[in-house]
Design brief:
By secondary structure, this protein is mostly beta strands. It has no helices and twelve strands. The protein has a five-stranded antiparallel β-sheet, with no helix packed on it. Strands 8-10-9-11-12 form a five-stranded mixed barrel. This is Bacteriophage protein.
C-alpha cells in the first residue's frame, strides 16, 4: 500500500474493553487478572513466560471444548492486585517498574528467575495491594 496522498477517515477504537476468545476448558473468574496465551486465547494469569497481559475479566466464564468456543469481556485500566511476600513483595520503590503475574490475583516485583510474564506497570502501592496498569 502506498503512502496517503489525500485525507483518510481512519477508524478509531477505544482500548478499554475487548471480547477475547477463551482457551478450551480455561476457568476465568470475574475480577481475575487475564492474559493471552501464545495462540492469543484468554487464560487466567499464572506463572508462565509466554503470556501477554490483557486486563481484568468483567465476567466469569469457562472455556468450551475447543479454543475460542466462548468469549470473555476483558477490561483494561489500572487495577489493585494482591502483593507477593518476602523478596517478591512490591514496595513504593517499584512504582513505574513492571509487575509480574504470580496467579490470577497476585503480582510480584520479580520475574521469578525468568519464570513469570510481566502483567503491567506498577502505578501505586497501598495497604490493600498493588495498583497495576494494563
Amino acid at each position: 500500500m502506498a503512502a496517503l496522498t489525500t485525507d483518510r477517515d481512519t477508524p478509531r477504537r477505544e482500548v478499554t474493553a475487548f471480547d477475547d476468545p477463551v482457551k478450551a476448558a480455561a476457568v476465568i473468574h470475574a475480577g481475575a487478572m487475564t492474559m493471552l496465551d501464545a495462540d492469543g486465547y484468554a487464560v487466567p494469569a499464572a506463572v508462565a513466560t509466554t503470556l501477554t497481559p490483557r486486563g481484568r475479566a468483567a465476567e466469569a466464564v469457562t472455556g468450551g471444548p475447543a479454543d475460542g468456543d466462548v468469549t470473555v469481556r476483558i477490561e483494561r485500566g489500572c487495577f489493585r492486585w494482591a502483593n507477593s511476600a518476602g523478596g517478591d513483595a512490591i514496595t513504593r520503590a517499584h512504582i513505574g517498574s513492571p509487575a509480574y503475574a504470580v496467579d490470577d490475583q497476585t503480582v510480584a516485583a520479580t520475574d521469578g528467575t525468568s519464570t513469570r510474564s510481566a502483567c503491567g506497570t506498577i502505578r501505586d502501592v497501598d495497604a490493600q495491594g498493588v495498583w497495576v496498569e494494563v
